[in-house]
């Protein structure tokens, strides 16, 4: 048995002869969780050093659409005419992101959400435009600031939990000119500017290798590699881990979330899970390691206008819900098999509808005059698809979808010509599980106690999601609990 | 933050003033993995002490049906007229127990399977009766020794992987007189007799609390509680952990396998996950923590004769497969919603068919003359169930099930009167994930290196299953890798 990565083991501080860098709070990773931690630690008076593996700040966040899941009545929600309460937000998150959600974390997140909005907008200068995008889509095609991003206004949630849109996206600048000014960039630029203004230092090309502990087991620094050379970094108060998910660690994905094997998405190659492993070597506990965000590579403007069927020709989800729920249901519950059944008129309407994802305007694979022909061409057993369409159409004539509860406005009988889009194996995503942390972002030992000096946030931790997902929950809990990690470390 | 179970942290050997017990190899848990480890360690010349939490040997194994998943051409398979090869066994296990299976472990398991049979039968005296039970069922109702227990002879596997029955069950004695002489008992009695004959000592009412390590990090003992008093146990060569799953640790189930919350089955309250946590405190790695065996509480003799539909009235699995696959598909892919649709004649036949589980001969909830009436009574949308039955019957008239591939012998049009059994929330099970171990049953540190002196097997480890399951895989890998744990510890 050869050692695969034995340097994830902690190094004893007594063996460190020289510290190359030193700060009160050392933050690993300059994505959304790391930047939020840095700002708050610096605001609390700490001298902060961020170690970033790549050549610049941003992480996966800067490349993301930029949604932050916020609610409870934010100024943006109010300006767009939506009521929301922390109570409704909690109810939705607990229903949609489980089973097995971390309830204290969701409670803290929802109760602090309006404050978090103010911090982002007022303290850090993240711009939000007070306009609502109400069309189906992964993201607004323009610079609108608010969208439904969790299926709040769709079955099965809308019937019992008053819905509100909670996807807050920073206002994009010249979106069509440069992808570098999308919502994620417009979140990260102000956050990192703020960090710089507060005196936060950053070292780039710094790969964190392992943690340094003193004789009492307290984390007092990290060992990193910079330009291939090992460097030591002393943390006088605490270390914050914020290095992202394990979506690009093949062995970890195989061991914990194998359905996601070879299909990482919305994540970056730096997401190698090392922060998780370094912490496991200290006895850190884990949670929800199988949980995954799942993108579904088709424009919702298309699939909301038809019916999604699985490999048996059966409908399995209301097509008007959050497309990430469609992705999860397809990958986890339907063997990654999906087809969109849609008539020509609806397809054309979907193609013409605005979308921020033109590459997801997928083409039909089969087009026929009748459902029977389509069914045969798709290789489905006789009657399998015909019966699905017949039952759907029967109710659609009354504008109803009693099987899955799609909203009446999107329910319309499927006519002819009829097409099928082949959406098999059209999913990808990132991992949501990781280190178990307290509501104050302390990394918890398997004993239940915090590991002294060690804090974490973002996708190296298990955050508010336990399996379900809503767009914005990751930048949301990354920034929210990133801030708490920074504050906790600063006073440690 | 108060400490929940801080004593899972390792104790330094230097702080132990007195060892209450001492042995070369200390085995925690006297179920199938522990007994197998004890026998092999003793056979290798080690002085062995087993620490068992309850008042007697047996663990969950002694209460189980007793299946051991074996193949590759065992004497029992041959005596019953079945061909099998290690290659076919590997192909099946890799296809059925994944995704993400530990391939080296499956390879070792399949290549060593015939030898393992000989060890069980010839070395240890586990009795197997050379008779095959070919009816649908969880277990043979009598004392037959061989059964299909993984869906090998059903879709989708049978078409590409030559099937063979691999569920080997020890011959029961007076089964109807005493449940203490079921297959699991008849496995554990010979194993523990063999251990005793080899001089293995056992201490009962011993709750292992944590591991003891020396200054190099080697595991050199355990701390336990006996009759409420803390005792120390020195392991001169190694410690083997074999204390079962975490199915009864509510916090762990919530964090890792929340779909199983409040529905443990085929497990015992002693399965508290402590061995996993004690090892995590040493930096042990984990795998497949979400994987679960899922029992489905209905007699296969009933459901094979009808069609299973989900909460939308859709079929979702071939009813002639391994019932554990039905359980997994129901719980994980269909929101734990299932109904059995069956006509009177088939129901009566199923009720009359032999079964080892009379309590699973469930009663109908609704009985109607027509499918339309049944559909309405069940509260399904008009057409949802009618179309399912219509399409099934259309093909069943030709003896075919093109949708899901149920074998022709079980395909028969559904007539009238027609009934529905309410099988919602009729699942339960145990966890399959746990410590990551090598093929030699060394507990692996997150670095990839073995933790010196620490070995494990059975359900506190991730064994051959990564999510899928076959009956006998748990007693199978528990005994197989339990033996390896004992041998590895004896020579450590």
Automatic annotation (TrEMBL), chains A, B:
Pfam families xrefs: FAD_binding_2 (PF00890)
Keyword Oxidoreductase: yes
Domain of life of the organism encoding this protein: Bacteria
GO biological process: steroid metabolic process
Cofactor (UniProt): FAD
Keyword tags: FAD, Flavoprotein, Oxidoreductase
Regions that span the bilayer: none
Protein name: FAD-dependent oxidoreductase
Span of domain FAD-dependent oxidoreductase 2 FAD-binding: 24-473
Statement: the UniProt record of this protein carries the keyword ATP-binding: no
